[in-house]
């Protein structure tokens, strides 16, 4: 956030509102909105929302309504590591199995699955 303001030459004190969101929030990781707010306190409010709501509803709406002049929006996604409540070994196997091309590759991967792979993560 600090880098964004430096690159755009926007002074910190003119930021009216900050909106950050996460697509597919992983419960074991921190909330990106809280992290941004706690590391770099800003005078505006801070909320967490989905990416679509964040940009369309929150930011554009507040500017159009005259509530804010400067709004910072950002977010993250975890699509590359979607939370699957299996062991890490099972998740890796399932993702690799999804990319296997031949029946032989699929059978080879399936044969490596062991009972402990089915233990769910708490």
From TrEMBL:
<feature type="domain" description="Thiolase N-terminal">
    <location>
        <begin position="2"/>
        <end position="97"/>
    </location>
</feature>
<keyword id="KW-0443">Lipid metabolism</keyword>
<dbReference type="GO" id="GO:0016747">
    <property type="term" value="F:acyltransferase activity, transferring groups other than amino-acyl groups"/>
</dbReference>
<comment type="similarity">
    <text>Belongs to the thiolase-like superfamily. Thiolase family.</text>
</comment>
<dbReference type="GO" id="GO:0006635">
    <property type="term" value="P:fatty acid beta-oxidation"/>
</dbReference>
<keyword id="KW-0012">Acyltransferase</keyword>
<dbReference type="InterPro" id="IPR016039">
    <property type="entry name" value="Thiolase-like"/>
</dbReference>
<protein>
    <submittedName>
        <fullName>ECHB enzyme</fullName>
    </submittedName>
</protein>
<keyword id="KW-0276">Fatty acid metabolism</keyword>
<dbReference type="InterPro" id="IPR020616">
    <property type="entry name" value="Thiolase_N"/>
</dbReference>
<dbReference type="Pfam" id="PF00108">
    <property type="entry name" value="Thiolase_N"/>
</dbReference>
<keyword id="KW-0808">Transferase</keyword>
<dbReference type="GO" id="GO:0005739">
    <property type="term" value="C:mitochondrion"/>
</dbReference>
